[in-house]
Amino acid sequence: MIVNLSLKGCLVRLGNDPCFRKGEAVEMTFCVRQLPVRIQGFVRQRHLGPGVGIEFTLLAERGKRRLMELIAELDEIVRAQAESPGKEPPS
């Protein structure tokens, strides 16, 4: 589960204790409107429990635009949920 997302990185909460080490290189793929966005980065932080902070280090310009679209969509969802509490989140 992605807990926090920006153009510089993300916080990921995994279902079990992650075996990632601080400084370890990672590659992630996000799908934005069924189009894959591949991002390279490294583990910046290990959090207590199953969380890791990933700093993005390599993201193509096209991927950056798609990631910005995803961030904007997520912001709209969060804003709509805040304006109408009690509504079920979209699935």
Explain what you see.
With 91 residues, the protein is of the alpha+beta class. It has a single domain (2-83), classed as Thrombin, subunit H (Beta Barrel). The protein contains one helix and five strands. A five-stranded antiparallel beta sheet has the order 1-2-5-4-3. A hairpin with a 2-residue loop joins strand 3 (25-32) and strand 4 (35-47). The longest helix is centred in the last third of the chain and has 23 residues, at 61-83. The radius of gyration is 14 Å and the shape is globular. It starts with a strand and ends in an 8-residue tail after the last helix. The mean pLDDT is 83.
Q: What level of helicity do the residues show?
A: 25-40%
Order of helices and strands: EEEEEH
Q: Strand arrangement, largest sheet?
A: 1-2-5-4-3
Average pLDDT, rounded to a whole number, is 83
Question: What is the makeup of the main sheet?
Answer: 5 strands, antiparallel
